[in-house]
Amino acid sequence: MVKWGLAAAFAALCATFAAPASAQNNIPSPTLDAVRARGMLNCGIHNGVAGFALPDSRGVVQGLDVDLCRGLAVAVFNDASKVRFIPVSSSTRFTALGSGEIDVLFRTSTQTMLRDTTLGLRHVTTYFYDGHGFMVRANAGVQRVRDMEGATICLIQGTTNEQVTADYFRSVSVRFQPVVFERTDQAQAALVAGRCDSFGTDASQLAGVRAAMPNPQEWTILSERFSKEPYGAYVRRGDDNWFDIVRWYTTAVIEAEEQGITRANAEEQRRTSVNPNTRRLLGVTPELGQSLKLDPAWAYNVIRAIGNYGELYERTMGESTPVALPRGPNNLWTNGGLLYALPMR
């Protein structure tokens, strides 16, 4: 009887772990259901910084975060147009997500412990690595931040940059005067007008601001970096399936670059590749899509629509764009960067 009891218990345990995909598919996904019922993804983005989210000459918003929103719409709907861009400020972005105004936040948002544990939100997957820096006039004679004794510094309210700046200046016993704004464009205008001696924020955003200046060559970004700023999408807590979709969607874009799959060759790769990892990613075998409640070809559709991570980066902020930001830490780990796709199997 004991043997039979142990056997039955073992069989039950095996059954518990035998079909995780089917069990996952039975779990409700309120956000995915709401997005599908609405027929539109509501995506929170920056309210204006080149490289991440800024309207072009035709009024069409462009940038890395914008394209990631479009790609997520493709993953869900296979239609890049089914996304509504909702600009949110640094001080309102997390409130907008928590209230349900937006479904996902792709907005230069750093993962920190307190944000991840106290806001009712979850940072998903890092897709961009940055660090806090300072921009000054090229003719100001400033070579390092320690030279800015008594300087006025433009900062954006509700960002990690406020604390980073205060912490650093305090640590080196240098006085400064913060001038705080709600939006980046306000800080940029104040800097140009001479209300501030410097602008302190993440280096990629400084590059975007400089690119939009009337005379970019008049400004220099100091080489020092004072923080770690890993950007990632944010979603609300409590919806595991939606978290998984955003996480593995972001991963798939990076994985595509690792595998050398591009917009141009994705169709051929799907048709001819015998690599099991490529066949899984492109939906020739359906298990990845099934586990997320998405079409088996979801990642293939995304790559065909927006490209892999390298393609996204080069067209939005690469060295051939006005932002002209070298990839640096945002290169693949195999090329000396920090980007690393988790195994998609």
Which descriptors apply to this entry?
345 residues, alpha/beta, three-stranded parallel sheet, globular, disordered N terminus, Solute-binding_3/MltF_N, transport, SBP_3_CS, Bact_solute-bind_prot3
Mean pLDDT: 91
Major sheet characteristics: 5 strands, mixed
Shape: globular
Order of helices and strands: HHHEEEHEHEHEEEHEHEHEEHHHHHH
In short:
With 345 residues, the protein is α/β, with parallel strands linked by helices. The chain has 15 helices and twelve strands. It starts with a helix and ends in a 29-residue tail after the last helix.
What does this structure look like?
With 345 residues, the protein is α/β, with parallel strands linked by helices. 42% of the residues lie in helices and 17% in strands. It has 15 helices and 12 strands. The strands form 4 sheets. It has a 5-stranded mixed β-sheet, sandwiched between helices. Strands 4-1-5 form a 3-stranded parallel β-sheet, sandwiched between helices. It has a two-stranded antiparallel ribbon with strand order 2-3. Helix 4 packs antiparallel against helix 14. The longest helix has 20 residues, at 240-259. The model is unreliable at 1-23 (pLDDT under 50).
Task: Give the helices and strands, then pairings.
Elements: H1 2-18, H2 20-25, H3 30-38, E1 41-45, E2 54-55, E3 61-62, H4 64-77, E4 83-87, H5 93-99, E5 104-105, H6 113-118, E6 121-130, E7 132-137, E8 151-156, H7 160-171, E9 176-181, H8 184-193, E10 198-202, H9 203-211, E11 219-221, E12 229-236, H10 240-259, H11 266-272, H12 276-281, H13 287-292, H14 298-306, H15 309-316
Parallel strand pairs: 1-4, 1-5, 8-9, 8-10
Antiparallel strand pairs: 2-3, 6-12, 7-10, 7-11
Domain Solute-binding protein family 3/N-terminal: 40-269
Keywords: Signal, Transport
Signal peptide: 1-23
